[in-house]
Design goal:
Length: about 450
């Protein structure tokens, strides 16, 4: 159960791990990078992939050579670019051929998988995503204590969630869409990417410029900017130095922040969907419009502000109790096409059902011939050595500092606390589950 971004994925994947372990599946969970280092020492099993990009071909090949099977969803599959561009960025016919089962956020996600020109007929299961389970009424109290603490500390605050890592990356040279216009002319970047990059850069600059005015418009309240986990915080901190009621914070899961916030302001991100599920008032700030690149789904479940004055007026109205969230029936009308498991069995329970139906509980995936296993072992040792060298290279995407930014330390006690709270909320005896540390950043959850 690999976790790339701890604040975004860990809690949901711990919940899924609990549900799996309860049924008898032993689960290895932890940092995606560190799990990859040890896949040649893990007994044959099921690897739960979070993406199927071309970048995953090497790792997927190693996994299959070692005898592991792959079940995958796309963590970025809910708020997507137009289908053709989404396919180019997020899917590969090579990786899809190595996936045994596909899990979809909802019917629309399943539609996109089936329409992909490289779709090889892999079974698709519309299960929903465990991240949405944590927003359901029966599990929201998992974050209640933290949300209450945030309210006590910040009062009725405005939360601004950003998603500008492609133009404001933690390491600036890794900002994928921040390329000069001449790159387009030279054929070094796709037309869509150049246009999306320009829009993202413009929005990033607008968000930076709007903060002082917004802070004045809600001057009796705190404004919290929560940058994307892959973003550089410095530009936001420079603005905060001039605004007494502005804070730049990225800690813990976003869910308690959404529960505690009086208002969310964002543009084109999954957090806006999560906010809509919770019923937190949300404003889509769209000072720049371009129908070729705008993300429609988050806008449909949010109020929309097209100018800075509109944004400030709407924010002030929400903080004064004069403007509520978009009506629930309207939100559900939109969300039901995209999110399975808002009601009924949890997404995690549906995923457990998929794995049980596939026979993984009764037996391991078939053994592979020794030459295949030997190739996988050798390839993974070479890959691991290369990655560990890169972890010590300043500015590299595998750099240890960047890894620590996305996956801070977690302990056995931290995970045991999560198990106990999930068990209490779901009225299930997760205390019968055992958590053990295998090595740095990697843990095992199983029945005791």
């Amino acid at each position: 159960m690999p976790v790339e971004s701890q604040v975004r994925e860990l809690d949901a994947k711990v919940l899924l791990s609990c549900l799996l372990a309860e049924r008898g599946f032993p689960v290895i969970i932890g940092s995606r990078a560190f799990i990859h280092f040890m896949v040649d020492r893990i007994p044959r099993g099921v690897y739960m992939a979070k993406s199927m990009r071309k970048l995953s071909i090497r790792m997927f090949t190693i996994l299959r050579q070692l005898g592991h099977e792959i079940v995958a969803w796309d963590e970025e599959g809910l708020v997507r670019w137009p289908d053709e561009e989404y396919y180019r960025w997020r899917l590969s016919p090579v990786t899809l051929r190595m996936v045994n089962h596909l899990l979809a956020w909802g019917e629309d996600d399943a539609r996109v998988f089936k329409a992909y020109p490289g779709y090889p007929g892999t079974p698709i299961h519309v299960t929903g995503n465990p991240r949405i389970d944590l927003l359901r009424p029966e599990l929201r109290n998992f974050y209640r204590e933290k949300a209450d603490l945030l309210r006590r500390e910040y009062g009725d605050f405005v939360l601004i969630n950003t998603n500008f890592s492609k133009v404001n990356h933690f390491f600036s040279h890794l900002s994928e869409l921040k390329k000069p216009a001449e790159d387009l002319a030279a054929g070094g970047i796709e037309t869509f990417d150049a246009g999306k990059g320009r829009l993202k850069q413009q929005l990033f600059e607008h968000f930076l410029r709007m903060l002082p005015d917004l802070c004045r418009a809600v001057s009796g309240h705190t404004v919290v900017v929560r940058p994307h986990p892959a973003e550089n915080h410095l530009p936001w901190q420079e603005v905060a130095a001039e605004c007494p009621n502005l804070r730049i914070i990225n800690e813990d899961s976003v869910t308690p922040w959404l529960m505690a916030a009086r208002l969310l302001i964002a543009n084109g991100c999954t957090t806006m969907i999560e906010s809509a599920v919770l019923g937190t008032p949300t404003i889509a700030y769209q000072p720049v419009l371009d129908s070729r690149y705008d993300d429609d789904l988050p806008n449909e479940v949010s109020h929309r502000a097209f100018t800075l004055s509109e944004l400030c007026d709407q924010a002030a109205a929400v903080m004064a109790g004069e403007l509520a969230a978009v009506a629930e029936e309207e939100r559900r009308r939109v969300l039901d096409r995209h999110l399975e498991s808002l009601d009924g069995p949890l997404a995690g329970e549906r995923i457990v059902g998929v794995l049980e139906s596939a026979g993984y509980l009764e037996q391991l995936p078939p053994a592979v011939p020794f030459p295949s296993w030997g190739k996988g072992f050798l390839h993974n040792r070479i890959r691991t050595l290369s990655k560990k060298i890169n972890m010590r290279r300043p500015g590299h995407r595998n750099n240890l500092k960047y890894h620590a930014h996305r996956f801070p330390g977690v302990t056995v006690a931290d995970l045991e606390m999560r198990l106990e709270r999930f068990g209490t909320l779901l009225q299930r005896d997760f205390t019968a589950l055992k958590v053990s540390r295998l090595q740095e950043h990697i843990f095992r959850i199983e029945r005791g």
